[in-house]
Amino acid sequence: MNDDIVLYSTPFPEETETENVSTEEPIEFYFPDVHEKKAETYTLKIKSNNNEFTIENLSMNGTNYVSKTKVDTIQWPEIFELIVESDSKRIEHYEHARLIQQTKHNQTEEWYLIFSSVSNQEIESMKMKSDIEYLSMMTDIEIE
Question: Which of 1, 31, 53, 68 is the most buried (most CB within 10 A)?
Answer without folding.
Answer: 53
